[in-house]
Every structure is written in structure tokens, then in C-alpha cells.
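Data availability (excerpt). All sequences and predicted C-alpha cell strings are deposited with the supplementary files. A representative entry, Glucosamine 6-phosphate N-acetyltransferase, is shown inline so that the format can be inspected without opening the archive.
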Amino acid sequence: MMQSENSVEDSLHIRKLEVTDKEKGFIELLRQLTVCDSVSDEKFKERFEEIAKYGDDHCICVIEDVRSGKIVATGSVFIEKKFVRNCGKAGHIEDVVVDSSARGMQLGKRIVEYLADHAHSMGCYKIIRGNSIDINIQHKEDARTRVKKVKNGISIINICHVVPKALEEFLRGSRHGLVKSPHGEKHIQDLGNETDLEM
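C-alpha cell line:
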């Protein structure tokens, strides 16, 4: 059983979007998130090349199931250059979606972590995640703004209308307000309509 689980995990490769991903179901996947009309090969290539001109300031990543050659998850981050915070940068994570056939494997969490790592490598002091639809679930709840300040000083602000299960599991803590994560422990402080997670 363990070998089977490892085999599935090994077949799910996370990487940046490639122009050939249109043929692997990328547009169909986006339709599970929001309205996404038919896009011709020509239009897809044109938009892909337009986005590519932004370089690392606009990163779209995907998870491909190499067994089927199908794109099963995606998300994007755009780097905003600001005057505040000593001409700092903020990352905006959007369009995170996991295929209905691949939910429950924390692929949404892998996408968000990949994009957050990219934003950190670009020098962002905060990351704002703004999907209006949850990544991979069945159980929805009204969202509160969640802020997670990690040890390297980055704040992640989740402003989803519903809390994605992947992030909810990541942020879930004990009744004492302590949350475990790969980055250490976070303390939660309730601030009315916001929840501030300090590390």
C-alpha cells in the first residue's frame, strides 16, 4: 500500500507552465475554478508569450500527473513592486485549483508552497492569496482574513471567500492558538474579523 502511495506521489511533478500544457488539459482545469471560454492554440501561445515577458514577476505553476500526461493542479503568483516598505515587493497568489479527480492529496498546499517559495526568492515581504473558490473541498466555511508571518519575515495573507482545505489544515492549531508547520510554530491572535498568525 505504501509503495502504491509513493508511486502516485512520484508521478505528480510540480513545475512552471509550458506552452504545450494546453494539450494536457490546462484550460479544462481552469474551468473547474471559474469561467474560462475556449482558447485557440494561437491565442494560448500569444498569451503565454506575453506573460513570459514578465519573467519571474509572473509565475504560473502546474502539477502534471506524468502517468496520464494530465495537468491536475495549477496556481499563479504575480509580483507587485511597491514604494512602501523601502520599495518592497508583494506577491499575489491567484487561480489555485486542483482537478476533481486529484483532490484530497494536498496538491493545493503544494501549489501554494511552491508559489510562496518563488515569491520569497523574489524578495517579497508579504504574499496575498485571493482565490474566491476553495482548492479541494467539500466543506466550506466563511473566510476570515488570515495572516501568517513566517520566520524569514514574509506575511501570507489569505483573503479567500472560503478557506481552502489545504490552507485550513496548514493553519489549524490547538485551543492554545499554536500551529505546527514545516517552518516552526505560529501563535494566533484573534483580531475581530482577522486572524493574525505570528511566528
